[in-house]
Specification:
This is S16 family serine protease. The protein is of the alpha/beta class. It is built from eleven helices and ten strands. The protein has two domains: about 80 residues; about 210 residues, 2-Layer Sandwich (Ribosomal Protein S5, domain 2), CATH 3.30.230. A hairpin with a 6-residue loop joins strand 2 and strand 3.
Length: about 300
């Protein structure tokens, strides 16, 4: 009996895996994927009724119905992927000083959802004519949609942390140990989320006089409550923005070093990047850079 149940479950998983791979590689749409999963439940349900008097087969098909139903429920959110845009366009946003005169610039990326299924060349032309400085254009495929769906589910189950601007500000406040109006009211479009944490923490330290800075420095990186610098995304676009803004020095998370160095070589970026693992290390690096700048004058 156990062997029969295992064989049936393996068959269900193979069936599901084939459908999932067809979906992930854009062979079938999400609706087709879900319909075939539903068909599987119906077919196994019919077999369950046919072999109701056979104890062994009844348990095997019963287990298969339960498994297919769980898989169908897990994938059900894909039914709403029709609202996903055709392309995601990243565009230039000037780096922003949270404290005027600090020289600490937060680096953020603009993002535009483009719904028309045009060519990338046409999209670039249309947006450029509208005054948008396009950095990259990414076609939204099923694998990206599937990843977003899984992240959403994990977030709902509290198994994955979703960082908001509010949470980032609260983390910076906890690290600095006090509330400051400029942090509370901070909400810069395109520089939201946890990637502004490091620049805000450094701006706060600068604002209370912990260090001086006389050179423009682009900064990206999240922080936790202990001041450890966390990894961020969009490194390619952020390097493009720093280059366009003509800022020659940047502070990035140590955890992004491999990716950033590879991209810097590919892009032939002239930005001098320094990698930091915590806020205090970032502060020391800024002080060191200022000493070198002063000595060179």
């Amino acid at each position: 009996m156990l062997k029969s149940i295992l064989l049936t479950i393996i068959s269900v998983l193979v069936y599901y895996s084939i459908l999932l791979l067809l979906y992930l590689f854009d062979v079938i749409w999400s609706l087709v994927f879900l319909v075939f999963l539903l068909y599987g439940i119906i077919i196994v349900g019919v077999l369950f009724l046919v072999f109701l008097k056979n104890s062994s087969l009844k348990k095997s098909f019963g287990a298969s119905i339960v498994l297919l139903s769980i898989l169908f429920a897990y994938e059900f959110l894909l039914l709403f992927d029709t609202s996903a845009p055709a392309y995601s366009v990243k565009n230039y946003i000037p780096p922003h000083e949270s404290i005027a005169g600090s020289g600490i610039y937060s680096v953020g990326i603009g993002e535009i959802d483009y719904d028309k299924k045009d060519s990338k060349e046409l999209i670039h032309k249309v947006l450029t004519e509208q005054g948008v400085d396009v950095l990259s254009i990414t076609k939204i495929d099923n694998m990206m949609i599937y990843g977003a769906k899984n992240r959403q589910l994990l977030s709902w189950l509290h198994l994955r942390k979703e960082y908001s601007s509010k949470e980032m500000v609260e983390t910076v406040q906890d690290y600095l140990g006090n509330e400051m109006d400029w942090v509370l009211n901070w909400d810069k479009e395109g520089i939201s989320g946890h990637s502004a944490g490091l620049s805000l923490a450094l701006s706060g330290l600068y604002n209370r006089g912990d260090f001086e800075n006389h050179i423009p420095i682009a900064v990206t990186g999240g922080i936790n409550k202990d001041g450890k610098v966390t990894k961020v995304g969009g490194i390619k676009e952020k390097l493009q923005i720093i280059d366009k803004a003509e800022i020659s020095i940047a502070l990035l998370p140590t955890k992004n070093k491999r990716e950033a160095e590879k991209l810097r070589k590919e892009m032939k970026s002239k930005v001098s990047i320094f990698y930091v693992s915590d806020v205090k290390e970032a502060q020391r690096k800024i002080e060191e850079l200022n000493l070198k700048h002063k000595a060179a004058q």
